């Protein structure tokens, strides 16, 4: 597996305590990690779950439950 290319959230600040980074190992998956602790395990979710999560965090409505 190729090394992941991590991208920090555009909402994160350099000194912020709540930062995430995402990578896309395949067109159908999103991998998420804590940018402050990149050596810790990360999690991978499907694009649909990620879209639902970001909609909910952004103040939208969740269409279905996991």
Structure description:
With 66 residues, the protein is α+β, with helices and mostly antiparallel strands. Helix content is 17%, strand content 29%. The protein contains 1 helix and 4 strands; from the N terminus they run E-E-E-E-H. The chain has one helix at residues 47-57, and strands at residues 7-8, 20-26, 29-34, 43-46. It has a 4-stranded antiparallel β-sheet. A hairpin with an 8-residue loop joins strand 3 (29-34) and strand 4 (43-46). The longest helix has 11 residues, at 47-57.
Notable traits:
66 residues; alpha+beta; 4-stranded antiparallel beta sheet; 17% helix; flat
Structural class: alpha+beta
The low-confidence parts are none
Order of helices and strands: EEEEH
Number of helices: 1
Proportion of residues in helical segments: 10-25%
- β-sheet strand percentage: 25-35%
Report the span from N to C terminus. Answer: 28 Å
Taking all Cα atoms into account, the compactness measure Rg is 13 Å
Q: What is the secondary structure topology, with strand pairs?
A:
Blueprint: E1 7-8, E2 20-26, E3 29-34, E4 43-46, H1 47-57
Antiparallel strand pairs: 1-2, 2-3, 3-4
Summarize this, please?
This protein has 66 residues and is α+β, with helices and mostly antiparallel strands.
């Amino acid at each position: 597996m190729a090394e992941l290319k991590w991208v920090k959230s555009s909402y994160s600040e350099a000194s912020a305590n709540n930062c995430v980074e995402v990578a896309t190992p395949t067109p159908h998956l999103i991998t998420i990690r804590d940018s402050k602790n990149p050596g810790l395990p990360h999690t991978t979710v499907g694009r649909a779950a990620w879209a639902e999560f970001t909609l909910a965090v952004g103040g939208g409505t969740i269409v279905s439950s996991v």
